[in-house]
UniProtKB/TrEMBL annotation:
This is GIY-YIG domain-containing protein. It comes from the Bacteria. InterPro entries: GIY-YIG_endonuc. Residues 19-122 form the GIY-YIG domain. CDD domains: GIY-YIG_COG3680. It comes from Enterococcus sulfureus ATCC 49903.
Length: 283
């Protein structure tokens, strides 16, 4: 049982400003029935399973009017005493506060009207399915990694793909550098190009990493690349843009470089720059 979301999961939940809210429910494993429905943001869903209410108030995790009774602490204690675990589901996320209020109210009314309904497959209007908090953390949680621990000394091109969690992970297509042939909603297409790369670097780059800078620099994609399998286009300002073909699969390369489900908080991009380099001093 996890006690809080990782930094990258919290960042994903708050990725769109003004849409940081989610609706959640707590389920009693003895009856498979929800006993509390709420709304919140950040680590709010975990507040009800915490014993230190004073500490949570200091963290602004609880409303002032909330008490042990309204938090269903007694029910939670009974579940824990039976050596069981409260199941916490995020029913919907990416909501404005007003949407969260409306969704919470609708769900409460629905539960009151219809008893014994299995809620784990509910899908809301935004298309997000109900997920256990552990599932959400598994999908979006990335553990920090020191740059020195990346498993290669070859030159790596790191590129910004801030909205990566929203993109398709389909890898079945190759994409040309030219306008109209690329897919801005595909992670592979966005990762592989097109990027302004210096002439002194293009021959040396062996890997490209997609970095979600909105989620603690989570490494969301990685591919082996080579200038030999790239296209270039010179811009009117004299700079040259490159787009690569993938010489490996995303997950295979993430694991090969030891960056699977990892983030690189030490990585920095220059002001206004969409690219940076890793291992550039080793080449």
């Amino acid at each position: 049982m996890i006690e809080q979301f990782s930094h990258s999961t919290r960042a994903m939940l708050a990725e769109v400003k003004g849409q940081e809210y989610y609706v959640y429910l707590l389920v009693d494993p003895r009856t498979n029935q929800p006993f509390y429905i709420g709304k919140g943001k950040g680590n709010r869903v975990f507040a009800h399973k915490q014993a230190a209410l004073t500490r949570l108030k200091e963290m602004d995790a609880l409303d002032d009017e909330e008490t042990k009774q309204t938090l269903k602490i007694q029910t939670i204690n009974e579940i824990l005493a039976a050596d069981l675990t409260v199941s916490s589901y995020i029913v919907s996320y990416g909501l404005t506060q007003a949407q969260a209020f409306a969704s919470e109210n609708a769900l409460i009314n629905y539960i009151k009207l219809v008893q014994g309904i299995e809620l784990t497959n509910i899908v809301n209007g935004h298309g997000t399915r109900a997920m256990l908090v552990e599932e959400l953390e598994e999908q979006f949680g990335y553990q920090p990694l020191d740059l020195k621990e990346i498993a290669t000394d070859e030159l790596i091109l790191a590129v910004k793909v801030k909205d990566a969690f929203q993109l398709s992970k389909d890898e079945s297509k190759e994409y040309s550098i030219y306008a109209g042939s690329r897919d801005d909603m595909n992670l592979k297409s966005r990762t592989l190009g097109n990027w302004v790369i210096g002439k002194d670097k293009i021959d040396k780059i062996r890997y490209i990493l997609a970095i979600n800078t909105g989620a603690d620099n989570a490494v969301v994609a990685a591919y082996e690349v080579s200038k030999e399998y790239s296209e270039s286009e010179k811009q009117s300002n004299g700079l040259t843009r490159y787009a690569f073909q993938a010489l490996s699969s995303r997950e295979e390369t993430l694991k090969k470089l030891a960056v699977y489900k990892r983030s690189l908080p030490q990585l920095t991009f220059g002001s206004g720059s969409s690219v940076c380099y890793i291992n550039k001093n080793k080449r």
